[in-house]
Design goal:
Layout: H1 2-15, H2 20-35, H3 40-43, H4 50-63, H5 74-84, E1 99-103, E2 113-117, H6 118-124
Antiparallel strand pairs: 1-2
Length: 125
């Protein structure tokens, strides 16, 4: 089961090589699986994808939008991803050294966005 979950993540990452967001979240998920192999069954849910987890982050950011700007912090980004995949929240977060960049909901098509640094989040854990 673990191998199939890893394959699913790597396949989505391979199909979206130019999408930095999918790459970063995919790496996060691969690391999460190393630390939490039981999460494989959650990732194998056919209805769950990395791209859809990003859509969930966009929805949360859109609700907070003010003056055509929206932002979520690194802690919230991780919480959204773990909630989306229905991971156990008591599990320790993996040591991922990377950035998640989430597009501003309003300016998504223009390519503008903001940075979320996971290093800052992981220092707090």
């Amino acid at each position: 089961m673990l191998e199939k979950a890893i394959e699913k993540i790597k396949t989505e990452m391979g199909q979206n090589k130019g999408d930095e967001y999918i790459q970063v979240i995919g790496e996060f998920l691969l690391q999460y699986l190393q630390d939490n192999p039981k999460a494989a069954e959650k990732i194998l849910d056919d209805k769950k994808t990395i791209a859809k987890s990003i859509t969930e982050m966009e929805k949360v950011a859109a609700k907070k939008q003010k003056n055509k700007r929206a932002c979520i912090g690194p802690q919230e980004a991780i919480e959204i991803i773990t909630k989306y995949f229905e991971f156990e929240t008591s599990s320790a977060l993996p040591q991922v050294v990377s950035e998640i960049k989430v597009a501003n909901h309003e300016d998504k098509a223009k390519g503008s966005g903001f940075d979320i640094n996971l290093d800052e989040l992981l220092e707090e854990v």
